[in-house]
Write a structure and sequence with these properties.
Elements (H helix, E strand, L loop, with lengths): L1 H7 L5 H23 L9 H20 L4 H19 L13 H15 L2 H18 L3 H21 L5 H26 L1 H8 L2 H21 L10 H8 L28 E2 L13 E2 L4 E7 L5 E6 L1 E2 L4 E2 L7 E3 L7 E2 L12 E10 L5 E4 L4 E10 L5 E4 L4 E8 L1 E11 L3 H4 L9 H7 L8 H10 L6 H15 L16 H9 L4 H14 L4 E7 L5 H9 L10 E6 L3 E9 L3 E5 L43 H24 L1 H12 L5 H18 L10 H11 L4 H16 L6 H17 L1
Helix pairs in contact: 2-3, 2-6, 2-8, 3-4, 3-6, 4-6, 7-8, 7-19, 8-9, 8-10, 14-17, 15-17, 16-17, 21-23, 21-24, 22-23, 23-24
């Protein structure tokens, strides 16, 4: 019977069937796995992603080419994973052992396993995840469950951690929709081959609507401009409800928007990052947590990029007429940078060596260093790069933006000797430089000068005046990346910040500090660069306890776009430039002179009167590993609950049916079920005219869909017996009718 039916079936396009119905869902599984590994971008090395991506590319190609030869596909994919691991993980191949001694072979295997760790494990796990998803999610319900679980996991990570995963969520939804389309076509072929064969003759017309809908969804999601969040994320709300400080996941950094602007109407949609155009500061921005550089240093410090001297009332510009000297760019030869003779022998100097590796491949206009760079030890940059040194502003600037891979620089960082600074007066050394760093626009409102004087009335020296300005700004005005620009009336950005907007970010705070200090006759300048970033190893050790911080902050730091920042420097005769941090919530890491420890008299306490040590109060709140575990557990529980609901759905439907039909005879239940079946069929697109009898309707439906005809005829016969026959009927007949209608429902 089945052979005759198969022979009666019309021929179909074999390539179309194999490529779309049998293989395409594996590509959707591949897309899901790629999106699910995106949150690890900041934790895995670039080599890890190269190995995984190339291994998954081999998976996709082999799954499309070889449909049914499972072992061949697995062998090709495993070979690809090992091959790309050896290629990208910088593993050194020692050659095969020339002996049969097991100890030699064991050492050979151990050595190569260590060379390929952890790349090969992660690549094989990604391949296994693709196979597991493609093998398990072979029904619509399972595909929906997998898509919902993936979207839930990505959305939870996006909400609780500083990752922007909305693109991954869009691609996940698109892959899930495509997966459902493939499964629907597969079911259509199995249940209604006649309809499928006629549709399959025009494959492009069949797939075009789905491609248009999914393509529009992806395009709208990707091209949609990002709007500020209307609601706080759950983690932030939860921490604020407990009056706890919200930890910074991206280090201590603030922001410097790429295209700052002060517009009278709306907010800027810029992202945080280091920018060159400071002619108009202000506006708002969104945080960008993408990494910029990796810094290995023996002293934690801010990364100084450029200084600006001329304040225009709207922003900053460079002073004209500065001299600079060309520095040989490229190579590993050490280059000593000429410094201005501003530091005396009495000034404490600490040598800071930093090796900076650029993660973001954008071209650089300046090289960043801690405070005043003194030696450029090594620079790996493009060959035609021309690097210049400005000794006055202590800037290493390229004539044109250049590609930089890495460089090593030594800086002279002044130790902060506050006692000595209080004995010195601020001054720029010469009248010409003093005029530069005391410059203010003529249109500066008088109330800015008056506020600076009123804040510093109790100070007796220049250093304390600057510290009072610093304290006033950081404690009076709140930090926000989205200041309310509708309050701004003044044309001067500092005046607007101090008296109208009264909130802002680092550009507002640092500019206000420089302007107020200059109004007091103290030479100052505006500085921009990056904060120190975050040390991942310290952060992890601190979470797990038992961590003793390095007082110098030596280590490896990840610096992100969100760490872009601006601050101020003031000049003291005989000491040099001193950094100040007026931005609320920030503190600049400056080394201090080592002083002899003071002897402290410790009173002798009678042991008998000493109270028993009380156990330390346990720290409230959840740490990051706990949050991750809770999210993972919640996703797993939801996944299992959905799976159980699907598995038990038939039993649940049967129980509800028994409850609904309580007190009725089997024949009455058959009639009710038939009415429900007809409504169900009509909702699925089966048409029924008002003048048609039920038999005419079922004959019409069975003629159009031959695969449903036997069940439709059986259900109709049982219904007519129950509707027009005598007696109450038997439970066995009702059970048989229920099984028949259930098969019809599942087929649709």
């Amino acid at each position: 019977m089945s052979i005759a039916l198969a022979e009666a079936r019309p021929k179909e396009n074999v390539l179309w069937r194999r490529m779309v119905l049998e293989r395409l869902h594996r590509i959707f599984a591949l897309i899901l796995v790629i999106q699910l590994i995106q949150p690890f971008q900041e934790y895995w090395w670039p080599e890890t992603y190269r190995v995984i991506y190339w291994a998954l590319a081999v998976y996709g190609a082999s799954e499309l080419v070889f449909s049914r030869m499972l072992w061949l596909r697995l062998a090709i994919q495993a070979a690809g994973a090992f091959g790309f691991t050896l290629a990208f993980a910088r593993a050194e191949w020692q050659g095969w052992p020339q002996t049969r001694d097991w100890s030699v072979w064991r050492g050979f295997l151990t050595h190569n396993a260590e060379e390929m760790h952890p790349y090969i494990e992660l690549a094989l796990f990604a391949l296994l995840a693709c196979h597991a998803l493609a093998h398990w999610a072979i029904t619509k319900r399972r595909a929906v469950l997998v898509t919902i679980a993936a979207v839930t996991m990505l959305a939870a990570i996006d909400s609780f951690f500083p990752f922007e995963l909305w693109r991954s969520i869009i691609w996940t939804v698109a892959a899930g929709l495509g997966w459902l389309v493939v499964l629907h076509l597969r079911m259509l072929r199995e249940m209604h081959f006649d309809s499928w064969s006629s549709l399959a003759e025009r494959p492009f017309e069949l797939m075009l609507p789905a491609l248009i809908v999914i393509g529009l969804l992806v395009a709208l999601g990707i091209l949609m401009p990002k709007a500020p969040s209307l609601l706080e994320d759950p983690y932030t709300l939860w921490m604020r409800a407990q009056d706890k400080e919200i930890p910074s996941f991206s280090g201590e950094g603030g922001t410097l928007i790429t295209n700052s602007s002060v517009s009278s109407g709306g907010q800027s949609s810029s992202k945080s990052g280091y920018g060159r155009n400071d002619s108009q500061i202000g506006g708002g921005f969104q945080y960008d947590y993408s990494p910029v550089m990796q810094v290995v240093t023996n002293q934690k410090s801010y990364l100084r990029g450029e200084t600006k001297a001329v304040y225009t009332g709207k922003g900053w510009s460079d002073r004209k007429g500065q001299s600079s000297q060309q520095v040989a760019a490229g190579g590993d030869e050490e280059r000593k940078l000429p410094l201005e003779p501003e530091l005396t022998d009495e000034t404490g100097i600490r040598k800071v060596e930093q090796t900076i590796t650029m993660v973001k491949k954008d071209r650089l206009s300046v090289l960043f260093a801690a405070s005043s760079a003194s030696n450029l030890v090594e620079l790996e940059s493009s060959r035609n790069a021309q690097l210049f040194w400005n000794p006055e502003e202590r800037e290493l600037r390229f004539q044109r933006p250049a590609s930089v891979a890495s460089y090593t620089v030594v800086s002279e960082v002044q130790e902060l000797d506050e006692e000595r600074l209080r004995t010195l007066s601020a001054g720029a050394g010469s009248d010409s430089l003093g005029a530069v760093y005391l410059q203010l626009p003529d249109a500066l409102p008088q109330r800015v000068r008056d506020l600076a004087r009123s804040v510093t009335t109790t100070a007796t020296n220049d250093y304390d005046r600057l510290k009072q300005l610093e304290q006033y700004l950081s404690s009076t005005y709140p930090y926000t990346n989205t200041p309310d620009l509708s309050k701004q009336k003044s044309k001067d950005v500092v005046d607007a910040f101090l008296f109208e907007i009264q909130e802002g970010y680092c550009d507002y705070f640092s500019t206000a500090f420089v302007v107020m200090a200059r109004s007091l006759g103290i030479p100052t300048r505006w500085v921009k660069g990056y904060t120190a970033g975050v040390n991942p190893s310290e952060d992890q050790q601190e979470r797990y306890g038992g961590y003793i911080p390095d007082p110098n902050g030596a280590g490896s730091y990840t610096v992100r776009n969100s760490d872009a920042h601006s601050w101020a420097e003031a000049y003291f005769e005989g000491y040099g430039w001193v950094s100040f941090e007026p931005t609320a919530g920030f503190s600049i890491p400056l080394p201090v002179p080592e002083r002899a420890p003071e002897e402290i008299d410790v009173p002798v306490v009678d042991a008998s009167t000493t109270p028993e040590a009380q156990p330390e109060e346990q720290e409230d709140g959840w740490k990051l590993p706990t949050i991750v575990s809770v999210i993972a557990a919640a996703v797993v529980i939801l996944f299992l609950a959905g799976w159980l609901v699907i598995r038990r759905r038939g039993g649940w439907r049967l129980a509800m049916r028994k409850l609904r039909h309580l007190g009725t005879t089997p024949n009455q239940r058959i009639v009710k079920e038939m009415e429900s079946l007809v409504r169900f069929m009509q909702r699925r697109g089966f048409k029924r005219d008002k003048h048609e009898t039920l038999r005419e309707t079922f004959d019409s439906w069975g003629g159009r869909f031959q695969s449903l005809k036997p069940d439709l005829e059986g259900a109709l016969a049982q219904f007519e017996w129950a509707r027009y026959g005598s007696g109450q009927g038997e439970e066995a007949a009702y059970a048989e009718f229920s099984r028949t209608t259930e098969r019809i429902r599942k087929a649709l």
